Structures are given as structure tokens and as C-alpha cells.
Amino acid sequence: xxxxxxxxxxxxxxxxxxxxxxxxxxxxxxxxxxxxxxxxxxxxxxxxxxxxxxxxxxxxxxxxxxxxxxxxxxxxxxxxxxxxxxxxxxxxxxxxxxxxxxxxxxxxxxxxxxxxxxxxxxxxxxxxxxxxxxxxxxxxxxxxxxxxxxxxxxxxxxxxxxxxxxxxxxxxxxxxxxxxxxxxxxxxxxxxxxxxxxxxxxxxxxxxxxxxxxxxxxxxxxxxxxxxxxxxxxx
Amino acid sequence: xxxxxxxxxxxxxxxxxxxxxxxxxxxxxxxxxxxxxxxxxxxxxxxxxxxxxxxxxxxxxxxxxxxxxxxxxxxxxxxxxxxxxxxxxxxxxxxxxxxxxxxxxxxxxxxxxxxxxxxxxxxxxxxxxxxxxxxxxxxxxxxxxxxxxxxxxxxxxxxxxxxxxxxxxxxxxxxxxxxxxxxxxxxxxxxxxxxxxxxxxxxxxxxxxxxxxxxxxxxxxxxxxxxxxxxxxxx
Lengths: 235, 235
Prior knowledge:
Two copies of one chain form a homodimer.
Chain A: E1 6-11, H1 22-29, E2 33-39, H2 45-50, E3 59-65, H3 72-90, E4 95-99, H4 109-116, E5 121-125, H5 130-138, E6 149-153, H6 158-167, E7 170-174, H7 180-189, E8 196-200, E9 208-211, E10 223-228
Parallel strand pairs in A: 1-4, 1-5, 2-3, 2-4, 6-7
Antiparallel strand pairs in A: 7-10, 8-9, 8-10
Pathway (chains A, B): Cofactor biosynthesis; adenosylcobalamin biosynthesis
Pfam family, one (chains A, B): TP_methylase
Family (chains A, B): Belongs to the precorrin methyltransferase family.
């Protein structure tokens, strides 16, 4: 009887391959099967980050995930991907799933995890998130001592964003994209525009950092707004 | 004239040396001068994580930081540490500061950054935080789609914690330590005890994971409570 393989959900960090952890690098370099999401058409940011580490002999399972507001097409893509991954695991191969950032922080790996963790051995390898990467690149400490940190997805409705922005110490707005103008107006209304920093594609050669007032609209999907309100870094 | 060195604030991740990034590993392995905080008496968790990578020839600048509620003694320790680091930088050496987790996420590096960044070239190397490490080890996805993530330090007053706990989707309570019973009571009052997971020293050989109801009191400083309220991992 074949012993089933292990499913590895491997965080790759924000984009610079040097920010991959040693454990992630070793798993990728030794992989017989890798799997990753890609946009319909084939581009995969996760694969691009790890490209130089994937063995030429590795089999690649590509999950083309449609970017639509409707959930059913993406659900179908993860169902199909999980089935192909399960087949490899059942055949005794380990499968290394490549994940941008961290697998459990706004990552698509959690959809595979929900489907496969009840059936197979799983190890999740945490990665550097875009949050701390953006802060590092911008030279902005995120939170010290008893400060709180709030992470908000940009697509949330205005009223919810406004309430949470008011209460926050340090504030991270993710998934900015086409919501940039709206988020900028909300922050401006709260008197926070001067403290808001925009970071796009942090740690990649094409990274851009700007005061939010000067940020492009619409922004790319991989962009973020940081507002550090309460930092008192002198201790 | 000597060209001053560069100050590197290097995140080491949550504790397992395999979760150090490739960039951090290379900087440590090539270091002529490393610096790190230690408890009065000499134990340094940061140094322990990186111990096998520090060259035998490296000079070590130890900052003994007293753990007292008063700020002045710790301020004095960072003042003195920054002065010694500045001396090495002025002499032309790079200095690699070892930081548990991420340098800008509740890390003491930000106190050195505030003192030295106006004077020297600085690079911050982000690291894996204990937040995503605990989630990975517990098998608990943190946040998907439009869910928010709230990070709260345990020492905050009850009223503030209660209000923020009520509003949160996914909730991370840091710096649990001697606040464990109080935090447990607050979560219980909000009907969240069943969903609260306690993780201690994540990714180390001595790691412990328990339902919060069974967690030890007091907890060690390096412990965390995760509450995932709204996760819908099937997409």
C-alpha cells in the first residue's frame, strides 16, 4: 500500500526571492510536484517568486482562478485543483503549494486547506507578509508596546471602514486597487492623509512608495496603505 | 575618510531557525558586528535563534534591557546600545541587529531605528511574525477576502479590549503572560472561549498548543491567543 504524501502550503513572502525562508526554499528545491494559482491566461505571481528554485523535473499543477466577484467559478477552480493535488498525494508524492506572502493571511491556500486538511497530512510554512515588508521598505515601525494593529481590506463598505479607521492606532489597508480614491477620501476626512503612505509591489524591482496624496488611481492589486498614528518609537 | 557602515535590522522569525529568510541568513553569516537585546542577566532569544549562523569572529554588542514598567531604564539601555552601534558604523563596519520576529512588529529594533536612522544608512529585513507562525502551527486560517484582522496587546485595559474584541473578525491577542486569566474571562463573556486557541513558543521544540480553556496561568511572555470568528475558508 502506498503511503500518501504530505501537503505543504509554503509562504514565499512579498516578492523578493531573498525573503523566502530557508525551510520554504528547501521544500521547493526538493519538490517533485508543485502547485500554484494563476490568473486565467496563466500568469502566476507565486510561481514567479519561486521560479529559480523549482526543479526542472518537477511536475506543475496550475490552478487557473478566475477573478470575478461571483464565487462559484473560483470555487470550481479550487475544487478541481484540490482533486488533482489529492491524486498526487494519494500516489505517494508530496505536493508543495506555492503561496504569495503567507498561506493563511488573505491567501488562496486556505481554500485548498479547507478541502484537503481533513484527508491528508498538512504542514503550513509561514511567510513574510506584505504588511511587515511594506513597513520595512517605508521605514515605518508598525506597532510598539500597547499599540494595536488593524488590517482592513479596501473593498469594505465606507461606513465600516470609517468606524474602524477612527478606532485604529496603526492601520493597514490591503487590496487597494480600484478603491484607492475612496480610501483616500475616507482617510482625508479623518485628518489622516498626511500620515498615509502608499506602497506598491513592495520588495520587487518595480516597487513604488509615495505619500498617499500622490498615489496613482486606480492602484494595482498588490498595493497597500499604511497609517501609523500612535507610534512613539523612543520608547 | 572612512565611509560609515550600514545598519541592518534583521527579522529572525518566530523561533525556528529554518524560518529565517535567505537574506537574513546571508547578512548574519557575513557579519563582522552583530548586536542584540538581552534580558538583564544575559539571555537573548534573538541570539539563540541565530546562534548557529553567527561567525565565531563577529564582535557582539549586547544590550541588556531591564524589563520594568518604568521607561527610563530601558531608554537608557537603548541610548547606550545606539551609541556603541554608532561607534562601529562610524568606524566603517556594518552592524547586523538581530530581532525576534519582525523588526517593526512589537520589536525593540524600532527604538534603535528612531535613534540611528537619521544618521546612518539603514536596511530593515522583514521577518515572519509570531502571528502567522501561530496560525500556521494551529492550522487556523487568519483572514480571507474582506475579513479584518485585529492585533491587541494583552496589557490593554478591560474596557478597551472588550470594545475591540466585539468588533473584531479575526483576533490576535499578544503579550499574554500574566494577563491570561483576565483575557480568558473577557473572551468568555463575549461567547468566544470555544473558538479561542492558545499557542506558546510557536515553532520551537517546546511549543504548546491548547484550547484557551486549558491554558496555563500565568502564561509565558511568548504566548498568543487566536480567535478566528468569521472564517469561511470554502470561499
